[in-house]
Every structure is written in structure tokens, then in C-alpha cells.
């Protein structure tokens, strides 16, 4: 029941007493008019509503069931409460929620079910208060009100049930799981809701309210458990039957639309209320068929026979035409027009009409009006539209405003209302389809794609009715936006499915492969969305179109035109699409071709993206005064090599968006500059900077032509006051530095002629480091900017850093060392990581003072309370210890002697403590332990102060190997133990007698046989083969244990359930065979019985076969590749491979001879 305003007429006042009205702009969003009283207070203000509610509530609480004149009092109080407007959107300051629940509980006990008029008013009051105040009921109130309304449905007459059900639907809204004790009465076999919601129910109002009540029961609020599957299934069946049933005869179309809306809402709640399993493909097909039919409810020109069920099929199931109606004889002009447009050329004519309309589109808004035409599907209607309107709009004739009204005013109002309700039905159907697309498994939904996405353009006969039809032709922008959301959900996560598309099959073959059908569907999707980009006038819907194009990339011309739109969100979405385009599997040859637009292509009237990028700001041939092109661009033709080396037009466009002022200075979103010129709005500039970063990352070879210009853009951004612009400028610099480093890496094999010259790199960084980047590093007010600036410093090319001036190098090092003491953990993390990069620079790693300063800084960071700081500190410590190994091999003992023993001891102890931290800290800590144990000299190993730390370090490695840590942690731990065995075997004779040496071997033996990850097994097998002499393996029992473990691992080298691990089985066998031959080469006479027993029998024969294969592979030169795949390390190799093979085979022959002559 609508709220009624019960205000008495104000007393007459003189003109001087009337308060002055505040001028208010007229708009659709303006609040409703409310007159002012003589005291200047707004009548019906929050204070008045609260006073009225409090007064009525107090009188209701004072009433008792045996009070005299109870009926009259309740009737009066109910009328007064219903007359007030409690909507918080209208009166945000109203505050009566706490009293509502207790008031309704008390009032329900005052109204007996025999007083049906009072029952109706109480139900109206319940709906009025709960609906407008959005009250969250407690369990007691919920139970009382549900009991009362359920009792009213049993005891009261039928005429009251509509209001009772309306109140019940408001009570159970989002509270379905809490009403489980009442659901059997409501949704049971003979439940009242099932009775009233049945398709045979003649009262459409009762049917609608019952369906709404069921939908509210199925609605699941965030954090709530889902409704019981039994009742959800019952409700789902009712909703589906309602959607499948036809409109009853003599039923008003508006009422039928309201019933369908309620059923669609309920179906959406069922599908979104938790995991839903359809009862086979038939049920899913029935749901999709009903939703597809309702997607076109009330659409002009759609009159087809819809299938009852959709089946998964690669080909679309075309809807059959309904029985044709007798047509009038066409006029001669129409006959001639039909003859002209018939045959195979009709589809081409349609497309030409569409494209012509799109090109001539104006920016005016289109008001949908129902006409008799069918839209773009009928060439005749379009031709008439083109001849009738002097400035045709983007939408078909039934989307346009016409001055020739075909209805009288009452009829027009009714038709507008019917169109509105039809649009709501289509919107609800698309919302349900969106829930299906999100809830059904992708591979199941792929079979139904052909019913919603066409596989060919409409040529000849009637086109299929699909989502693209709605996107291009529906008069409601909300419906078009919903269709785009559904299409986006279907495309999201379907990259593997769409990757099957292949447009290489011959069109004239008896067999059409599915890949070709999928390719035609993708092409049609591209064509339709390109038209939608040009045709759409609603900015919200246009944004949805662009978001869909992120999944299905667009041609660049339409997007450049869209950058002229005055709507910021549209331009941001276009740039987002450009970013998605240049980041997908970069570098793609197709994208490189799009970025390379010839200069001469703009001659002859053709349009290119570059023309749009460079000329869209110019008016009457005059560009902005401050506009300077990125590079000179003569209009003469260029050679392919010159065009390939020129900067991409998209990069020029983004530079223009970031740096150039807007022509339209009235845009309030523009950011003013010192010169008074307004730049682009901040979201547009930020997105343009992100696109530039994506371009530099994925297509650096194209962007390097304007390296210094991009650096100037970054420097300008760093010099602005907006922290977001500064941050993205620093990110762009980081991407430039990373691109240069990638070019100079040897493994990338970039020719010298294609690299950025070293002199230009040095000049670039000299200018950057002397500009605003230094200020950004010291900007303590914006820690995120400092963090990004530190990352930028770490992206300097090492060779270029060595050629920078000494003061510049010193500045970088000093700033980074100072920022490691920042209070912000983000800044500290970035600074520690940058030092970890610098420690690998050839010009810095031999500087003992820098190594010592970096080591002390890292040690301090390892004790930080932030796990992010500790993780980066451990990574930097691993890099530092890598540098120690490199210096030990290149510089020699001199470097080892210059480094302080106490510093090494502190690093060893810190790494040991870090090995007990989280996995992301532990993985680099054990790497550092292995390097440190390798770096220590004999004099240091023998010192008493090192003995306990050494033992703790080895035990930490053993514990890590035996733990259930991640693969990377255990791999590094096995590598570190290999280093440990190598060093101690050479330098420490007491190693064999140490108690923890047995733990080291046993842990490696356990991992090589039982670890599920083959890469960890490979590294543990390599570590077991590190000791260079027989004495390092200890007694016969330990040696036999190592042999048995390697033999067992070789036997089980193919036993895995993970195909990803099976890829490494060949490398694992290679490493295990090498380790077994190494054991044979160092074995002695006392080991023969154990080894001979292992080599005897079936298992021994398999081992010998693997060893022979390994020897043959070594002879064929295949062993080096196998060792590389296995992760072999030259630092732990003791004997050459020919030596190992020779000794191993000699001992193998010896064992065989001994066992041949043994008794």
C-alpha cells in the first residue's frame, strides 16, 4: 500500500510571513517538493516523523487486548503510522529503527485473526516499516511475525491473502535459512506458497506475491548459509514452470510481466544462493531455452516459435518462424525495393546501411518508441528510416522519437508502461543468464554457445536471435548493458577454448571442422562489437562494450574515435582495452603490425589510428601552442625498415594524453597547471601512463626509438604534485630500465645493432638521476613513491652504472643504504632488494668496503619484524654470498683474507636463524648457508668460535631437507648440503666422525627415494655424488645405504601420478646413473659383497641396463644436456666424466668376475 501523506492544510499567512524559498535547479534528481511551514521548518521533517512515530508507538504499547474501544484505537493508530514516509533516502536523519521490532511484536498480539480489516492494516504496516526502514529483525521478532502471517493465511479470508503474503515476503527477505521451522508449511507438499504460485492459479496478483515471497526466501545474504536443497529445488521447479508456461487467456499483459519478473528474480536467487547442480542437460537446456525466449520479450519484430529445450551442439538451433499472417499486396515501390534487396546481396546491403548509419551518428540521446518495423533486420524499414530522417541516429527506427504518434495520449501512456515492463523482463532474464554463466562449469556451457553467439553474419534469411542482437538493437540501454555483462562472463576464462579457432579451412568442403566454425563465431563477434562501439550512445553501456573487447580485441580505428568521447570513464575503458591488447602474450606479430601504421596511409581519405592520435586535438588545422610532436614525422613514404624503427602511434597518443593540455578547457576534471591550461583528467592520464608501461615492457624494440623522450615524460610526471602521477612516472622509468637490461642479457641473443647504444643508456640515466628522481627518493610524505623510486634505481644496467660519474654512483649507494633504515616497511623492502641487485654489479662486487656495508645492512634487515623485509633481506643475502663465491674464484685468497672473520660468522649465524623462518625467507637463507660453507677457509673451519655455528648450520640444512617445505626450499637445501659435503670432505678430516654427518647422508637418502618432486630428487642425488673419496662416505653400512637409496630411486624413477613431474624422469635417471657410477668409482674391496648383492638378480640387471644407457649417452655427447637439465653444478664436480665412467665400469666388471667364481 502506498504511503499517504496525512498533513492538514496550513493556516493562511500574510506574504511577509512566508519565508524566502531557496533557489533549486530543476532536474530529475531533485528531491520531491515539500512546503515550508510558517516557522521555516519543513513539514514532514525527520523530527515530525519521529515525533509522530513515538507518539503512536507509545499509545500502541499502552493498549491491552482487553482495552475498551481497542478496534477503533488500532484503526486510527495504524492509519497515522501508514501516513508517514520513513524512507531514509528521503529523510536520512530519521532514527526509529530500534523501536520497530518490539512495536511489531506487541502489536501482533493485539490484533486477533478474526478482525480481518485490522489484520490487513497490520500487514500493510509491517511491509511499510520493514521495507522503508530496512530493519534487520532479531530471531524472536522473525519467529513471531512469521507465525502470525502463517496463521493469517490459514484463518483469514482469501481477499486478505494478497496483503498477508506481501508482508510475509518482506519479513522473510534474506531470512530464508532462519525460517526453517516454517518452510514445511510454506513450501511443503501442500504448502500455501506452492498453491498460490502454481501456473493454474487464476488470481495473478496472488500468484505474483507468492512468487515474490518464494524468491525472498531463496535470497541469500552475504555470510549466510544457503537454503536447504530440498526447498531450493522445489522453488526452482516452480520458477521454471512459471517461465515455461504461456500467458493465460484474458490476462492483462502488465500483470503477466510482473509475474514473470517475480519468477525471474526467484530463479536468479536460486542460482546465486550457493552451488547449484542442474538435474542433467535437459534441465539446463530448459532453463536456457526459457531465458532465451524471455530475453526478447516484447522486442519489436520478433515473432518466432521458440524451442522448449536447448541442447549442446556446435551448430545453432534456429528458431522457427511462426505461422505467417496474410499480407497486403505491396506497393510498386516496395516491390521494386524488395526485388533490389533480395538474393545474396541483401545481407551486404544491410551491412552497408548499418555502417552508413554508424558513421553518421550524432551524439544525441535516442528515446525508444514502439513502431511497427522490425529494426535493422528488415532492409525495407531501414531504407524508409534513412529517407524519412534527415539526420539518422545509430539505433533502428523503433529506437527513435517520432512526432507522428500512432496512439492517443492514454494509449501512448499504456504502451510506454508496457514497454517499460517488457524491458524489465528482458533485463531479469539476462540477469538469470549471467548467474548461469557464472555458476555453470565453462566446458559445460561451451556446448550452448552457438545459441547465444552467432557463427556467421546475417546474410540472406532472418538472422539468429542472439546476445549480439540485443546488444545492437534493444531499445533499453540497461538491457544492452546486461547483455554485454553476460557476454563478458561467457568470454571470461575461455581463452583455451577460443584458442582452438582456426580460419584456414577451405570454405568449399563437405566437412566443416569445429575450429573453423569457432573462428567464424569469433569474427562475427568482432564485427558486431565493432558496430556496437560506433552505435552506442549511453556512456555506461559503451563502457561495458569496451570491457567486453578486453576479451575480444578490437580494431584500433573505432577505439581512437572513442577517445573523442567527453565521458572520462569511456576514455579510461578504451585505454584499458589498449593495455590488455599490448600485454597479451607480448610481443604478438599482429599487435606489432597494428602499432606500425604507415604514414602514407592517411592520404586518399582513409583513416588510420595514427591520424586520430595526432590530429584529434587540432581545430581548423591549428594545434595546441604547447604541442610538440614526439619525433619529426614527414608525410613522405617510408621504407619498411624506417617504419619498423619509428615510435608506435599508440605511444605517441599516450604521450599526448599525458603531457598536452586539453582543447576543451571547460572540463571540470582537468588538472590546472601553472600556465592555466587544463590537462586531461587524472584517470585518463594514469591509464595512458599504464599503457605506456605495457608498451615498453612488451614491445621495447619499438619503444626504444624514443627512449629519451619517454624519459622526459617520466621526469615531467615525477615533477608534478599528484602522487599518483609521480608513482606511474617512476613505474615507467623502471620498465625502461628493465627493457634495456633484457636487451643486454646474453641469453636473449639480441644483436648489437638492435640494442640501445651504451652511450645513449649512460646519457639517459645521467639525466634521470640528476632530475626529480632524486627528490622522489627523499619524499618521506609518500612512501609508495619512494618504494617505486628504489625499484627504478635497481633497474640500471650494470655496464651503464660503471660508466656513470663517481658522484652519481656514490649518491645511489648512499641513498639506498640510508633508506634501509626507513620506518616504512615498503621503503625498507625496496631498498634492501636494490642493494641485493647492486651487490652483483661487477664494478661493485670486488669493493670490500661496499660488500661489508651491504652485509651489515642486510643482517640488520633480517631481524626486522616485517616478513616482507626479511624475505627480501634473505634474497639479498643469497646474492651477496653468490658474489663471495664469484670473488673467491676470480680474485682468490686475497679477497677472502680481506673480509672480516666476525662478519662471516655473523652472516652464518643470521642465515641459520633465517632458515627457521617462513618458506619465502627460508629458501634464500639455505642458499646463503651453502655458499657460506663453501666460502669458508680451512683456517676458519678449524677455529673454535666457528665449530658450534657450523654444526648448527648443517643441522639446519638437514632439518630443512627433511621438512615438508616447498619445492624451492628443499631444492636449495639439497644444493647447500652438496656444497657442505664438498667443502668438509676436502678441508675437514673430522667431518666423517661428526655425528651430524650421518644425519646429512640419511636426509639426502630419504629425499632421493621418497620426495614427490623430481627436481628435488635430482638435486639430492647430485649432492650424494659430491664426496670425492671413499673415506668421506664413512663405514660400509653408510656407503651401502647411499647405494641402496640411489638404486631404489633409479628403479622408481618413472613412478609418479603427476604428468608435470614425469617430464623430469629422464633427467632424474641421468643424475642417478652418474651418482651410482661415481660410487662404483670410489668403492673399495670391502664394499664388494653389498654392491654385488645389489647388482645380482632382476633389480641388478635393470640397474646395469640404466648404467649402460648412461655410458652410451656420454659417448654420444648427450650427457651434457642431461646434466644441464638435471641441474648439475660444476662447483661440486670432483672427477671428470670419462674418469668416473672408466673407474665405474672397471669396478663393475671386477664385481661380476668375483661373483662368477664365488661359491
Automatic annotation (TrEMBL):
SUPFAM superfamilies linked to this entry: ARM repeat
Region (Disordered): 321-344, 598-645
Domain DUF4042: 424-548
Composition bias, Low complexity: 322-333
Protein name: HEAT repeat-containing protein 6
Native species: Sparus aurata
Amino acid at each position: 500500500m502506498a504511503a499517504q501523506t496525512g498533513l492538514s492544510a496550513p493556516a493562511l499567512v500574510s506574504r511577509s510571513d512566508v519565508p524566502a524559498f531557496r533557489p533549486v535547479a530543476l532536474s530529475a534528481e531533485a528531491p520531491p517538493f515539500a512546503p515550508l511551514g510558517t516557522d521555516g521548518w519543513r513539514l514532514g521533517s525527520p523530527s515530525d516523523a519521529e515525533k509522530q512515530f513515538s507518539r503512536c508507538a507509545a499509545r500502541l504499547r499502552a493498549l491491552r487486548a482487553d482495552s475498551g474501544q481497542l478496534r477503533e484505537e488500532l484503526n486510527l493508530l495504524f492509519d497515522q503510522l501508514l501516513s508517514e514516509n520513513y524512507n531514509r533516502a528521503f529523510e536520512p536523519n530519521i532514527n526509529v529503527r530500534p523501536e520497530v521490532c518490539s512495536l511489531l511484536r506487541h502489536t501482533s498480539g493485539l490484533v486477533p485473526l478474526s478482525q480481518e480489516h485490522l489484520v490487513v492494516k497490520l500487514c500493510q504496516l509491517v511491509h511499510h516499516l520493514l521495507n522503508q526502514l530496512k530493519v534487520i529483525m532479531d530471531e524472536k521478532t522473525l519467529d513471531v511475525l512469521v507465525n502470525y502471517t502463517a496463521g493469517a493465511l490459514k484463518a483469514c479470508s482469501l481477499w486478505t491473502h494478497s496483503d498477508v503474503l506481501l508482508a510475509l515476503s518482506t519479513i522473510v527477505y534474506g531470512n530464508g535459512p532462519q525460517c526453517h521451522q516454517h518452510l514445511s508449511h510454506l513450501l511443503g507438499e501442500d504448502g500455501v506458497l506452492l498453491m498460490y504460485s502454481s501456473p493454474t492459479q487464476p488470481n495473478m496478483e496472488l500468484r505474483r506475491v507468492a512468487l515474490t515471497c518464494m524468491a525472498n526466501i531463496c535470497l541469500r545474504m552475504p555470510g549466510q548459509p544457503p537454503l536447504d536443497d530440498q526447498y531450493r529445488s522445489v522453488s526452482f521447479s516452480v520458477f521454471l514452470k512459471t517461465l515455461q508456461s504461456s500467458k493465460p487467456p484474458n490476462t492483462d499483459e502488465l500483470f503477466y510481466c510482473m509475474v514473470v519478473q517475480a519468477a525471474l528474480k526467484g530463479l536468479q536467487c536460486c542460482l546465486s544462493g550457493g552451488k547449484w547442480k542442474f538435474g542433467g542437460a535437459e534441465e539446463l537446456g530448459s532453463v536456457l531455452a526459457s531465458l532465451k525466449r524471455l530475453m526478447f520479450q516484447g522486442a519489436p519484430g520478433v515473432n518466432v516459435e521458440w524451442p522448449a529445450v536447448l541442447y549442446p551442439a556446435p551448430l545453432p538451433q534456429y528458431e522457427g518462424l511462426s505461422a505467417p499472417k496474410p499480407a497486403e499486396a505491396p506497393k510498386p515501390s516496395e516491390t521494386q525495393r524488395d526485388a533490389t534487396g533480395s538474393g545474396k546481396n541483401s545481407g551486404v546491403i544491410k551491412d552497408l546501411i548499418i555502417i552508413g548509419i554508424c558513421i553518421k551518428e550524432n551524439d544525441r540521446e535516442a528515446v525508444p518508441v514502439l513502431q511497427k518495423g522490425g529494426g535493422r533486420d528488415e532492409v525495407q524499414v531501414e531504407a524508409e528510416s534513412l529517407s524519412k530522417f534527415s539526420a539518422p541516429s545509430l539505433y533502428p527506427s523503433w529506437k527513435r522519437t517520432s512526432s507522428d504518434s500512432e496512439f492517443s495520449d492514454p494509449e501512448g501512456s499504456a504502451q510506454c508502461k508496457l514497454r517499460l515492463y517488457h524491458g524489465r523482463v528482458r533485463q531479469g532474464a539476462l540477469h538469470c543468464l549471467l548467474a548461469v554463466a557464472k555458476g555453470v562449469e565453462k566446458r559445460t556451457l561451451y556446448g550452448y554457445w552457438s545459441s547465444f553467439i552467432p557463427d556467421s553474419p546475417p546474410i540472406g534469411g532472418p538472422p539468429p536471435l542472439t546476445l549480439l542482437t540485443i546488444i545492437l538493437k534493444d531499445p533499453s540501454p540497461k538491457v544492452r548493458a546486461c547483455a554485454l555483462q553476460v557476454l563478458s562472463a561467457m568470454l571470461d576464462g575461455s581463452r583455451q577454448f577460443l584458442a582452438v579457432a582456426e580460419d584456414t579451412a577451405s570454405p568449399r568442403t563437405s566437412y566443416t571442422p569445429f575450429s573453423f566454425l569457432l573462428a567464424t563465431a569469433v569474427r562475427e563477434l568482432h564485427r558486431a562489437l565493432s558496430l556496437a562501439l560506433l552505435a552506442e550512445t549511453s556512456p555506461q553501456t559503451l563502457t561495458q562494450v569496451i570491457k567486453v573487447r578486453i576479451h575480444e580485441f578490437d580494431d584500433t580505428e573505432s577505439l581512437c574515435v572513442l577517445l573523442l568521447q567527453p565521458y572520462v570513464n569511456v576514455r579510461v575503458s578504451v585505454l584499458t582495452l589498449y593495455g590488455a591488447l599490448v600485454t597479451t602474450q607480448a610481443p604478438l606479430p599482429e599487435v606489432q603490425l597494428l602499432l606500425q601504421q604507415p604514414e602514407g596511409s592517411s592520404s586518399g581519405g582513409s583513416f588510420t589510428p595514427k591520424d586520430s592520435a595526432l590530429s584529434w586535438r587540432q581545430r581548423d588545422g591549428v594545434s595546441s601552442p604547447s604541442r610538440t610532436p614526439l619525433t619529426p614525422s614527414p608525410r613522405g613514404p617510408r621504407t619498411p625498415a624506417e617504419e619498423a624503427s619509428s615510435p608506435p602511434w599508440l605511444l605517441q597518443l599516450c604521450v599526448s594524453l599525458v603531457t598536452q593540455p586539453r582543447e576543451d578547457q571547460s572540463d571540470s576534471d582537468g588538472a590546472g597547471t601553472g600556465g592555466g591550461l587544463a590537462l586531461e583528467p587524472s584517470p585518463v592520464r594514469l591509464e595512458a601512463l599504464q599503457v605506456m608501461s605495457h608498451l615498453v615492457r612488451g614491445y621495447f624494440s619499438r619503444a626504444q626509438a624514443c627512449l629519451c623522450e619517454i624519459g622526459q615524460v617520466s621526469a615531467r610526471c615525477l615533477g608534478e604534485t599528484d602522487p599518483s602521477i609521480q608513482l606511474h612516472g617512476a613505474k615507467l622509468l623502471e620498465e625502461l630500465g628493465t627493457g634495456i637490461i633484457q636487451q643486454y642479457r646474453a641469453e636473449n641473443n639480441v644483436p648489437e645493432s638492435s640494442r640501445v647504444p651504451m652511450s645513449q643508456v649512460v646519457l639517459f640515466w645521467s639525466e634521470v638521476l640528476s632530475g626529480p628522481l632524486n627528490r622522489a627518493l627523499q619524499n618521506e610524505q609518500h612512501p609508495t613513491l619512494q618504494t617505486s623510486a628504489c625499484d627504478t634505481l635497481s633497474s640500471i644496467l650494470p655496464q651503464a652504472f660503471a660508466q656513470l660519474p663517481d658522484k652519481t654512483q656514490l649518491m645511489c649507494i648512499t641513498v639506498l643504504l640510508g633508506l634501509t633504515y626507513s620506518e616504512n616497511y615498503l621503503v625498507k623492502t625496496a631498498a634492501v632488494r636494490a642493494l641485493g641487485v647492486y651487490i652483483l654489479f661487477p664494478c661493485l662486487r670486488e669493493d670490500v668496503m661496499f660488500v661489508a656495508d651491504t652485509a651489515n645492512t642486510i643482517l640488520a634487515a633480517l631481524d626486522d619484524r616485517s616478513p616482507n623485509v626479511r624475505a627480501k633481506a634473505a634474497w639479498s643475502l643469497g646474492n651477496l654470498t653468490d658474489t663471495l663465491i664469484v670473488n673467491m674464484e676470480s680474485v682468490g685468497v686475497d679477497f677472502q683474507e680481506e673480509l672480516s672473520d666476525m662478519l662471516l660468522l655473523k652472516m652464518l649465524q643470521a642465515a641459520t636463524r633465517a632458515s627457521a623462518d617462513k618458506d619465502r625467507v627460508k629458501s634464500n637463507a639455505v642458499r646463503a648457508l651453502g655458499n657460506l660453507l663453501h666460502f669458508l677457509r680451512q683456517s676458519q673451519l678449524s677455529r673454535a668460535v666457528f665449530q658450534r655455528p657450523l654444526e648448527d648450520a648443517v643441522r639446519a640444512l638437514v632439518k630443512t631437507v627433511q621438512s615438508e617445505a616447498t619445492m624451492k626450499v628443499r631444492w636449495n637445501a639439497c644444493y647447500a648440503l652438496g656444497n657442505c659435503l664438498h667443502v668438509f670432505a676436502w678441508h675437514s678430516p673430522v667431518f666423517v666422525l661428526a655425528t651430524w654427518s650421518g644425519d646429512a647422508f640419511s636426509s639426502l637418502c630419504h629425499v632421493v627415494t621418497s620426495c614427490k618432486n623430481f627436481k628435488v630428487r635430482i638435486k639430492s642425488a647430485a649432492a650424494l655424488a659430491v664426496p670425492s673419496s671413499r673415506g668421506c662416505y664413512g663405514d660400509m653400512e653408510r656407503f651401502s645405504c647411499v647405494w641402496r637409496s640411489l638404486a631404489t630411486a633409479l628403479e622408481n624413477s618413472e613412478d609418479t601420478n603427476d604428468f608435470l613431474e614425469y617430464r623430469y624422469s629422464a633427467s632424474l635417471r641421468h643424475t642417478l646413473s652418474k651418482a651410482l657410477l661415481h660410487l662404483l668409482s670410489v668403492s673399495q674391496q670391502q664394499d664388494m659383497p653389498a654392491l654385488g648383492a645389489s647388482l645380482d638378480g632382476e633389480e641388478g640387471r635393470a640397474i646395469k641396463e640404466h648404467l649402460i644407457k648412461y655410458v652410451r649417452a656420454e659417448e654420444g655427447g648427450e650427457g651434457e644436456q642431461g646434466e644441464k637439465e638435471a641441474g648439475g653444478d660444476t662447483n661440486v664436480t670432483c672427477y671428470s666424466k670419462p674418469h668416473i665412467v672408466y673407474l665405474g665400469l672397471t669396478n663393475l666388471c671386477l664385481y661380476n668376475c668375483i661373483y662368477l667364481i664365488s661359491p
